[in-house]
Design goal:
This protein has about 110 residues and is of the alpha+beta class. It is globular.
């Protein structure tokens, strides 16, 4: 979901994510990716099916204490590569407009804008 650049982020209630990830009938249970630091989950992303049969990378988030280490990029790339291995022809993802570095990284990984 797109966000405005340089706007303070307010986390949604946990129930919002439970519904989006675990109760979504289009969700891919094997398409949930987490990053851990020891036993602490520090990052998360997930895949869903789109109605036309394509896949979409859902929100990708990393704890502020662990940002700028490439964790979000790796999570998003893992989800994208997983979707490709599962046979999805197109995988949709987006980034905040102030995250131009992520768009460049996706281009390097063979992910192109459509």
């Amino acid at each position: 979901m797109p966000h405005e650049p340089h706007v303070d982020w307010v986390d949604s209630p946990l129930e919002t994510y439970i519904v989006a990830i675990f109760e979504n009938p289009l969700g891919l249970r094997d398409g949930i990716f987490v990053a851990r630091d020891g036993q602490t989950i520090v990052g998360l992303t997930y895949l869903t099916r789109r109605p036309g049969g394509d896949a979409e990378v859902g929100d990708t988030g990393v704890l502020s204490s662990h940002r700028r280490r490439g964790i979000g990029r790796v999570l998003k790339l893992m989800a994208t590569h997983y979707a490709a291995r599962q046979g999805f022809r197109y995988v949709y993802t987006d980034n905040r407009s102030d995250k131009c570095r992520h768009a460049r990284d996706q281009s390097r990984a063979g992910i192109r804008a459509r």
